[in-house]
């Protein structure tokens, strides 16, 4: 009882500032926290039995957790095997505290923002740590203990390749746990950390051995199939994210097991749940990136279904950006001949939405799309498809949308796509030099230089601040992004263009070589002085001149 009072007194007197994330951030200098830790906390945690005096042990572990920033790293390293040992305690409070304390220690930051405790320092404890964490999930009352599962996730993240020898056992236990909790999902945090742990297992193993992806599919697909067949709504968005991660690990064609599932992903019922939309779009993008040719040859009859999904998403103010993600992947990856017959209808749908319900978000996505289309099919093809819908529409789009709105585009990759697309319109579209569209050439160049040099226009019209939330009748499972299933940002322009400014200068040089005198003449009469100065800088950096 005396030691409990001492812990309480020290904790109260020493604490000057505290946060939930970092524990005590400011301590009373008159209290020697390390001495108290060594003389009173450690001896209790080192006792032979983890089950005796559970209240005392829980308070001792809580002391480590609270004062982790005040105790030296050496003392924390001494504490780690003690905490691992207490994962075996029968008391739910003690083993939960032990798991939470380990998870907090593993997130502490040292110099250079790296973890304070390194994977190398944990190597001697890897096996017993993983064994005790998974055993703790079998203790009464802790079968779905979120603190233990979070500690498992954090351990994987810290240990990285050190866990690879244990992955066969670990993934079996995670799969069994997934199957068990899928019968009646009731602990959202536990479930989230469980899927994060599965993603970490996949990432770490496949980074060292890409061929291991097949063994994960073998282990997980049976459970995933059961979840999808039983319509476990809470888990379906997670399953799609893990499947995307697995599919993206493949370097060659899509395996037949994925192609068998493809038609089912286009079923309208799946797209009615808002929580399914982001992971489903990501999964379809993975299909397109890895197997566009397979889809074009073996599942061409499903392309209308794919475009049907795009049409549904584009009609929604909440999900139109997801529709553009899908459309951009179709344009980028599908063989041109497989979508030829649908291209005009795609643009008609987009123009209908522009006319009926224009928003800033839609405009930004539309600008990226048309410039990606221009990069993929050519500036002349873009002009021709616009003018086939309505005469002189290409000029209207340039004048009313691209020139005044391009400054609103945000994101480094998105700006690069727009810069390369506009450069193509300026330098690879003959009608821009010889028709009524010529008057738009200099304003378009001015807008492009503005995209390079001016701050982003992030203004939003007042009426868009109050866009109504769309009707979603009944309960809707929310989408929770898995951090460790994250997708790398993709640059469709890639190495084709490293520096868009240099690319513009080189393209203008090439145009001026084909039309001597025209380009300098248009620049000198219409481009403002500041923009002209920037352009001279690009030409100088590219070591080219205009003829």
TrEMBL record:
Residue ranges annotated for the Exportin-2 central domain, each copy included: 5-101
UniProt-listed Pfam families: CAS_CSE1 (PF03378), Cse1 (PF08506)
InterPro entries: ARM-like, ARM-type_fold, XPO2_C, XPO2_central
Keyword Signal (UniProt): yes
Keywords: Signal
The keyword DNA damage is annotated on this UniProt entry: no
GO molecular function terms attached to this record: nuclear export signal receptor activity; small GTPase binding
Single GO BP term: protein import into nucleus
Signal sequence segment: 1-19
Family matches, as SUPFAM superfamilies: ARM repeat
Residue stretches making up the Exportin-2 C-terminal domain: 103-538
One GO CC term on file: cytosol
Protein name: Chromosome segregation 1 like
Protein species of origin: Athene cunicularia
Gene symbol of the encoding locus: CSE1L
């Amino acid at each position: 009882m005396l030691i409990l009072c001492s812990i309480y007194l020290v904790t109260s007197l020493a604490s000057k500032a505290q946060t939930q994330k970092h524990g005590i951030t400011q301590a009373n200098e008159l209290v020697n926290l390390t001495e108290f830790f060594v003389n009173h906390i450690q001896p209790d945690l080192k006792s032979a039995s983890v089950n005796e005096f559970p209240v005392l042990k829980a308070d001792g572990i809580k002391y480590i957790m609270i004062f982790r920033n005040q105790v030296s790293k050496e003392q924390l390293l001494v504490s780690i095997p003690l905490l691992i040992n207490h994962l075996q305690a029968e008391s739910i409070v003690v083993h939960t505290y032990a798991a939470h304390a380990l998870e907090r220690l593993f997130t502490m930051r040292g110099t250079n923002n790296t973890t304070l405790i390194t994977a190398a320092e944990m190597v001697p404890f890897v096996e017993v740590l993983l064994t005790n964490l998974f055993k703790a999930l079998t203790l009464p009352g802790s079968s779905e203990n979120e603190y233990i599962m979070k500690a498992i996730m954090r351990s994987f993240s810290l240990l990285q390749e050190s866990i690879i020898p244990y992955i066969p056992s670990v993934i079996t236990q995670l799969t069994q746990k997934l199957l068990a909790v899928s019968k009646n999902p009731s602990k959202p945090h536990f479930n989230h950390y469980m899927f994060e742990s599965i993603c970490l297992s996949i990432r770490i193993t496949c980074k060292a051995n890409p061929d291991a992806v097949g063994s994960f599919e073998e282990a997980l697909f049976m459970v995933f199939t059961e979840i999808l067949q039983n319509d476990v709504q809470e888990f379906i968005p997670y399953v799609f994210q893990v499947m995307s991660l697995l599919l993206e690990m493949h370097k060659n064609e899509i395996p037949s097991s994925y192609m068998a599932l493809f038609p089912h992903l286009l079923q309208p019922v799946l797209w009615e749940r808002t929580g399914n939309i982001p992971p489903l779009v990501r999964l379809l993008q993975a299909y397109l990136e890895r197997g566009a040719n397979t889809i074009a040859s073996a599942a061409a009859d499903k392309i209308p279904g794919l475009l049907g999904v795009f049409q549904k998403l584009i009609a929604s103010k909440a999900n139109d950006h997801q529709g553009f993600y899908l459309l951009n992947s179709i344009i980028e990856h599908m063989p041109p001949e497989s979508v030829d017959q649908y291209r005009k209808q795609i643009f008609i749908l987009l123009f209908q939405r522009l006319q009926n319900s224009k928003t800033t978000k839609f405009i930004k996505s539309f600008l990226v799309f048309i410039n990606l289309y221009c990069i993929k099919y050519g500036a002349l093809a873009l002009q021709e498809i616009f003018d086939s819908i309505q005469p002189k529409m290409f000029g209207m789009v340039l004048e009313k949308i691209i020139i005044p709105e391009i400054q609103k585009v945000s994101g480094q990759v998105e700006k690069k796509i727009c810069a390369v697309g506009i450069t193509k319109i300026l330098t690879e579209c003959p009608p821009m030099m010889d028709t009524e569209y010529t008057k738009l050439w200099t304003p378009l160049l001015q807008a492009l230089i503005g995209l390079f040099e001016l701050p982003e226009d992030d203004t939003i019209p007042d009426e868009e601040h109050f866009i109504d939330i769309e009707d979603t009748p009944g309960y809707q499972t929310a989408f929770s992004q898995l951090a460790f299933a994250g997708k790398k940002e993709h640059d469709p322009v890639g190495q084709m263009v490293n520096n868009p400014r240099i690319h513009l200068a080189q393209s203008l040089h090439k145009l001026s070589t084909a039309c001597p005198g025209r380009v300098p003449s248009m620049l000198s009469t219409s481009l403002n002085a500041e923009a002209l100065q920037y352009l001279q800088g690009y030409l100088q950096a590219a070591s080219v001149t205009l003829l």
